[in-house]
Structure formats: C-alpha cells, structure tokens
Amino acid sequence: YVPTLATSPLGGLKTTSTFVLEQPRCAFTKVQSDAVIWLVVAIPEAVANFSNSVGPGTPERAFQGFPTSTHAYMTLNTTLRNYPCPKPPGEITVLRVGSETSCATDETRPTCNGPLLGPGPYRVKFLALNGSKPVAETAWSKPITLKTALPSSSIPATGSGRSTGMIALTSILSILFAVLLAGLVAMLFFWGSHARGSSTFSKPEAVTVRRYNTHHVYDQPAARL
C-alpha cells in the first residue's frame, strides 16, 4: 500500500501548511484489531535511514523539532477499528495533515499534528505498532510538495487589465459623487439664503392721516311763522 493524496472533491487538498491523505483502508488486514496505526511524516533525506524501533513521543520523533533537529515525526495515531475494510459507500475517508495549531509549540505534545513550516517536499507512510513493537508498515509515499505563498513584492501594483478598468470606473464614480454632493450643498445654501431673505420685514411706510375739522350741526330753531 502506498499512501496517496486524497481524491475527494472537497478542495484544499494542499495548502501552504497542510495536505490531505486517503485513509489506509484495507492496508493492514493481517494485523490484530488492537494495533495502533501511526502516520510518519519525514523529509526525503530521512527515508533511507528511518528506524521503526524509535517510538512516537520521543525527542527523535517530536513534531516541535521538525524538520531541523527532527527529520521525521509520528502523529495521527488511531486503532485499526477506525479504518474498517471495505470502506462504506459514500463515506469520506481522509486525513488532513497539519491541521492542529494549538499544540505546534507545546513540547508536552510531541505527537502534535501541527502545521508544516515549509513547502517540503515531504514523504509519509503508515506504521502499525502493537505496544511498542512494529508489526506492519506501508511503503513510503511519493514526494508531496505544498503550495507556496506569493511574496507581496511579486504582486503587480496595478493588477490585471480588469483591475485597472475597475479602478478607473471607481475613480469616475467618486468624482461624479463629489460633484453631485457639491451641487446639493450649494442648492441647500441657496434655498437657505432665499428663505431668510423672504422672512425679513421691511420698515412700513408712515401713514399720513389728514385731519378734518368736524362741522357741528346745530338744531336750527324752527322758522318763525
């Protein structure tokens, strides 16, 4: 059995710090059910001299020293019961390597499934232990190279042609918005000035009243007969 990258359509099979493997279903059919299956992750230079007798959790197999002082670490341990054979139809059976961030620097958890620090390449295999005794193993995988993040200096400043067009359109819309806003402010100022001018009262003109002398009418004595 050769470990392979997953073929699941979920996406993200390889990132800058993780990769996804198919579970080793039907790879350990002759091993007792209480055996523990470990995943071994190594740099290619460590494959030739890798020793199965060095157990998990030891300084030589601790994740926290990988890949500088430790050239291979062991992680994702589980019993064979979790790898039933054959695989149930429709079941997604994958393992994501590098998904644990909380224990990446915790030296009390040397079997941490921590994120990988570089693009690799890496090679993996599954190892079955009965206690501390190796009882079965798979072949090593082909080299697995992760994605590489682009440095900020390599990103074009102006972007693609479509990005340039979007920038130009955004600039034009910003200018039009500024012109409309200025026109609205001017209109509001004009209306305010006009309203204040119409609400002022001018001094009323003096009203001249002519004075008339009232001619009193007296009762005339009856004409003498």
From TrEMBL:
Which residues are the signal sequence here? none
Keyword Ribonucleoprotein in annotation:
no
Top-level taxon of the source organism? Eukaryota
- What is the name listed in the Swiss-Prot or TrEMBL entry for this protein? Uroplakin-3b-like protein 1
Annotated transmembrane regions: 166-191
Tell me what gene encodes this: UPK3BL1
List the InterPro entries hit by this protein, alphabetically.
Uroplakin-3 (IPR024831)
GO cellular component term, pick one = membrane
Q: Which UniProt keywords apply?
A: Membrane, Transmembrane, Transmembrane helix
